[in-house]
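Sorry, any thoughts here?
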Amino acid sequence: MNDEEASNTETAEAQIYLKRVRIDNFRTLNNFSIDFRNGINVIVGPNNVGKSAVIDAIRATLDLGKYHKSAYVKRWDFYDETKEVAVDLYFDIPEDTDGFHELLALEEGERELQLHARFKLVGLPDNPRVMPHYWGGAHTAHKLDENALGGLHATYLGALRDANSELRPSTLGPLAELLRKLCSTDFERKEIEKVFAEAHTKREVESLVKTAKGSIDSHLSPIVLEADKFNVLLDPISPDFDKLVGNFEMRLENTTRTMEVFQNGMGYNNILYISTVLGHIQQTQRLNDDEYFALLIEEPEAHLHPQLEDSLFNYMCSLGMGSGAQIITTTHSPIIASQCDLDSVNIMSTSPFTTAVSIGSLGLSDETKMKLARFLDVTKSQMLFAKAILLVEGISEALLMPFMANCYYSTDHALTKKGVEVVNINGLSFATFATLFNQENCLPIRTAILSDKDDFEDEEGVYHEMSATAQSIASVEGGYLKSCISHDTTFEIDLWNAGNNEIMKKVYEDLHPRTTIDSGEKLVEKLTSNQDKALFAQELAYRLEKDDIKLTPPEYIIDAFNWIAPEAEDEELIGGVKRWITERLYNAEWALTTQLEVIARQFDEMEDEYLRERKADIEQVVERLLRLLAPEK
């Protein structure tokens, strides 16, 4: 650790930071909570899951009591207009914090700051207004005066920010704010004003003013009436510091030219804008080191190419709290998701309720996190944004999975439409990924492992149903993770026996005209000896697409599809629960349990043993839902 990193670490340990946010009835967020840590925090997840809602709820709460507000709770933010919107912020504070007395609370023997806000709709039903109510500490009696929140600051950079406009000369722009903080005393500002005032008295300036006055008078005098005669006075603008800082213009200079901001590309203007804002926050925090500062950024990757994304985020991570602010950012970038410390990542999903899970809260060992960090390259980190995940052994499964999904779901681009990410592990190291999904406290993303059973006979002629590796993979099933093991020895044999033998035979014999294939076992034998599994899969995928041929999935892959996207059973489960609640007035837990019994009886009556066994999938879903409902009690 160098001196700068050590300094940033010391700064981080001595600053206030937002550690938990609870939100209810705000857009899609109900009974929702998310934890943050000191330094940088990254929120990832698919579109429309509520990432922006988290940012906006924090902004609206921190803006309470301030004259200039950047965020408000509006009527359309209420999920249920008959209920209050609730936002609760909890801050960790250094031991020597001496301030924020109206926000102080004691929880489990530890001091913390608490800010609670409630928003409700009042007035006419057709045109209600939002009425806020807020207090500090653990009790509603701790009413806050208008100055109590003055030490809590948030700077927001929206996803659709216009860096070009923000960087233009303006008394309200980020550059003007930075200059104000750099000259924070009256003495410094008076000295600047004095320099500009003296410049106005220079002979060249006086000559210019006199000539301009004469030019105007030469036209004005013949026009005005004698009774209305007046003189024109031209005075330079007052050298007031607050006005002067709004006249500074930013330009970029390299070895060949100087460019105006509007001539610059949007990507580097985004970087320039973020750098200016960071400079302003850092200088503000330097003058008010006992206050809280948040930088809330949506999609910092806007307009950046991959290498610049990487560079920006690496810098932000190394900066830590040295920026003077706790950084909370949302992103859709796999590059950012793959670069950040796993402990700083919060993954949002709907399962079916919107939840946020911090990878740092899963209790993973340091060794597991190190392995995950190595595995989560740019490609594999896309799974953090998915609605469901398929983990496969190699390129053959990865190439052919979309064709099998299209056949099973009877639609084109089925996996894409369902938000499913296929992750090629390039081997059998599923256990590291499994820890994210198979625990009681895990990422609530339905995930299936697809692997070969690799049955064999040992040296003594004893038949083994599965290899030791396959047994190990089967054993990691749990939580949101299902292990789907091939029924035959390998994927290719299962695929052959599922009715795809004709196209597979033709593709291989076209690749090897002197070879005749008459079984899946013979195909695997040849693929293994020739080491051309990947080539065969590529050629098969090409032929399927070119000739519009359906690829029927084997049974164990159908099992995986049903696990990651259980549409029919979701409809029956959710629809049934709704009927029990609305028609019989059951509470949520009772309705879930009752509908489970209805569905379970249907499965018990099925003749197909494979289908009967799927009752356990429904039971697992209901069990998870009941656990999520438990905190309400």
The CA atoms of residues 94 and 124 lie 46 Å apart.
